[in-house]
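The methods section describes the discrete structure representation at length, but only in general terms. What matters is that the chain and its backbone geometry are given together, residue for residue. Nothing conveys this as quickly as seeing an actual entry. For illustration, here is how one protein appears when written out as sequence plus structure tokens:
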Amino acid sequence: MSYPAAVDEGILKATPPGPAFSFAGQNWHALPQGALFWRERAALIVADLHFEKASAFARRGQMLPPYDSRATLDALEDVIARTTPREIWCLGDSFHDMGAHDRMMAETRERIVRLTAACRWTWITGNHDPQGGSASDSSLGGESIDEALIDGVLLRHEACPGEARPEISGHFHPKLRINLRGRHIARRCFVMGARKLIVPAFGALTGGLDAASPVITSLVGQEREALIALEDRLLRFALAK
């Protein structure tokens, strides 16, 4: 599958909000909301939106406020407005289960359609998404694929242990848990190694796995660190070996 070349010089001069860092020889901006902006391509990357998670729990008898999809879209629209991306990549688990499309309110569907129509939009399939190779109901717009190799960087839902190429993924919802002055704090974070970058969950109703969990650290490899994005700086924490 072919993709357009990196964006032109004029777009590259427009620095989006959020601290910058380097990965795979490219420039990236980590956003506090948990999104990732690829500067060379003016591409916005988000993972694990989990639309309609609350309604899935409600069907099983656990009643949660049914506003998670709305809150996720509010945050996504805000990030899009701030970064004006040329393309958007959703790294899987965009929908919480196979029935999410049917449970969506008309307003939610309309908002998603407006977003997917505004720029190049790609849904990467995750383990929660509808099966059969389609991460999205076609009526919602965008393109659905299993994974993508773009400018030497792999975009997929779940990190592959044996992958030697630079790879960006989601799936694990990493959070950094630290004790600060006697207070236990957990913040969504990016986890980065030499060849792997794991993006936090963007969805409003998503939990998280400890960034120092062996499940994550064994995948990322040596010299790994957790990145927490603030509005004006990037906090970097080495993860124990």
User: Anything to note?
Assistant: Residues 6-14 have pLDDT under 50 and may be disordered. The domain at 18-238 is CATH 3.60.21 (Purple Acid Phosphatase; chain A, domain 2).
